[in-house]
């Protein structure tokens, strides 16, 4: 007389399938996040915003870009109260610039200087519009 035993692995299989699906989803999310980061970097570079290898320098440049955008909006609205608040932000950025200068390589120094010169010219033009 032979006795056969059958064991079900359905619970294990479902668990393994769920784990596999979760891992696949995580990989897809990571890949999408990396693609978005690359797109932002490419967009920034195409708009004249240089990219830097040092994270703190890049953070400074991104903050400066946000400042410029806010400056443009203030000029368009001719809101002098908002313009006054930009002074504090400008001072903070000046302090931050001094902090990040030590993190620059030779090539990055030139890149940042060129960027800041272009932005300085842009701010001068915006200031002229504000005074008109």
Structure description:
By secondary structure, the chain is an all-alpha fold. It has 2 domains: 15-47; 48-132, no CATH class. The protein has 4 helices and no strands. 6% of the residues are buried.
Summarize the structure.
With 132 residues, this protein is an all-alpha fold.
> How many domain units?
2
Largest sheet: none
Classify the beta-strand content into a percent band: under 5%
Which structural category do the helix and sheet elements fall into? mainly alpha
Q: Give me the oligomer status.
A: single chain
Range of helix content: over 70%
- Helical region count? 4
For the residues shown, what is the average pLDDT?
74
Unreliable spans: 3-8, 36-46
Order of helices and strands: HHHH
Distance between the first and last residues' Cα? 104 Å
Number of strands: 0
- Globular, elongated, flat, extended or rod-shaped: what is the shape? globular
- What is the alpha-carbon Rg in Å? 26 Å
